[in-house]
Write a structure and sequence with these properties.
Structural class: alpha+beta
CATH architecture of the largest domain: Orthogonal Bundle
Largest sheet: 4 strands, antiparallel
Mean pLDDT: 84
CATH topology of the largest domain: Triger factor/SurA peptide-binding fold
Oligomer: single chain
Strand content: 15-25%
Shape: globular
CATH class of the largest domain: Mainly Alpha
Strand order of the largest sheet: 4-3-6-5
Number of domains: 3
CATH superfamily of the largest domain: Porin chaperone SurA, peptide-binding domain
Number of helices: 15
Number of strands: 11
Radius of gyration: 24 Å
Length: 410
Amino acid sequence: MTLFPRSLALGAVLAAVLAAGAPLPGAAQNMFAPAATVDETVVTAFEVDQRQKLLQLFNAPDATRDKALSDLIDERLQLAEARRAGIEVTRQEVLDGMTEFAGRANLTREAFVAQIARGGVDVTTFEDFVRAGVAWRQVVRARFGDTTRIEEDEVERAADAPPAPRLRVLLNELIIPANTPDRAARAQSLAPQISSITSFDAFAAAAREYSATPSRTRGGRIDWLELANLPPQLGQAILALEPGQVTAPIPLPNALAFFQLRQVDEIVPQGVPTSIDYAAYDIPGGRSPQALAEAARIDARVDTCDDLYAVAQGADPARLRRDSRPVAEIPSDVALELARLDPGEVSTGLTRADGQTLVLLMLCGRSYRAADAEAPNLGQVRNALVQRRVGRRADNLLAELRANATIVRQ
């Protein structure tokens, strides 16, 4: 079930072509020519173009046209399997899925749709992406949800197993302010040039010229970061790089960030953080000398987050915030700063209120799954094993659907 008739979406596109003064027959023929056929259904060139733009806006590690086409082919197969199973995704399920997806970027559904529209992506493209995901989850749940059993000894073995090796990365950073329309336009205009850099010297020069972080004086060089401490989207983008390559622009609140990979290294397993406890104390004055001096005085006085309560005594209670959240739920700019810190260390790299408030950010601690035999949450271990096994079965089902389908790429 679609939210808007295909004819309306097509009419909007054709109207745009006419408004642009382009010759309609040739443009429409090229735009809606088949890019692939999947059994009795067609994937159009327009859909591939739209999906590629969407992947680029998501900062997906692989945002190529081939990836966009492959995803759309898979979704045709998934939707066909849903129809065979009698599954129909309702309008409300699509809207709920869009809302949930937008929430991962701390946006409302309406704000997210407006943002991708500015990137040239029609809302129906986002709807189709969500619809296929919802339908496939329902297929997988119906096929495998009640038949996946995990034996008790398997749960115990998994709970006692040592954590997998972790990676750390050595990066260069370049963060351009985008807190006004003019600055945002400037940042976007610089993005293609910066993302195409492959030289360490060229990136260092760009960081010195454009970056607004203290690391600009070092050409953007920052210390080792544990990959697991980074926001998941940023970690995926970095893992897709070769040394010297630069990420696509990463949106941060009021800024656009770029990261160049210098080196990847493996570290001794110590567990993966499940949540982070941190505190933020607001200091009026932004990055003024007075505000930075006050931050330095506070840093010299405190050793733990609990010490900040004494610092904040007598001040507006709203200036001090203490929070403990799963890593994936922490705002991206805060998570990036926390990734640089050990417990008890502070950062003054963030501002709020259009630069008028300096944020003294302190890492209180990271929570990991208990390593001893008495403490692990066996229910969580079991759920993780179930999800892993269901995921493998879903991948196998999709591979079987591909093998049995007639797929022709144009």
